Amino acid sequence: MLVMGLLTALLGATYALQLTPVYTAKATLLIDTNQKNIINAEAIVSGIGRDNSALESELELIRSYDVAKRVVKKLNLDEKTIDEPERVSLVRQLITLMFSRESDPEPVVEVDQTDKIIRSLSKSVSVDRKGWTYVVDIKFTSDNAAEAAQIANAFADEYLVDQLEASYEVTRRANDWLSERLGDLRKKVRESERAVELFKVENNIVQTGGSTLSDQQVAKLNEQLILARAETAQAHAKYDQVQSVRKRGGDITAFADALQSTALASLKGKASEIRRELANLSAKYGNRHPSVVSARAQLQDVRRSISSEAKRILTSTENDLRVARSREKSISASLAEVQGTASRGDRAEITLRELEREAAANKALFESFLSRFKQTSEQEKLNTNNSRVIERATAPTSPSAPNKKSIVILATLLGLGLGVGIAFLLEQLDSGYRTSTQIEKQLGTPLLASVPRSDGELPGSGIGRAVRKFNPFSFFTGLFRRGDKSERRMKKTDRISISRLVAQKPLSSFTEAIRSLRMGIKFADVDRPQRIVLVASALPGEGKSTIASNLALHAAASGEKALIIDLDLRHPVLTSLYAPEAQHGAVELLLGEVDLKQVIVKDPDSGLHILPAPRRDDLTHTAELLGSKRMKDLFAHLSGFYDLIVVDTSPLLPVTDGRALIDVVDSLVLVVKWETTPRDAVDAALKQSHGAHAKLTGVVMNDVIASRARYYDYYKSGYYSRKYPYYYGGSK
Question: Is the whole model's pTM more than 0.70, yes or no?
Answer without folding.
Answer: no
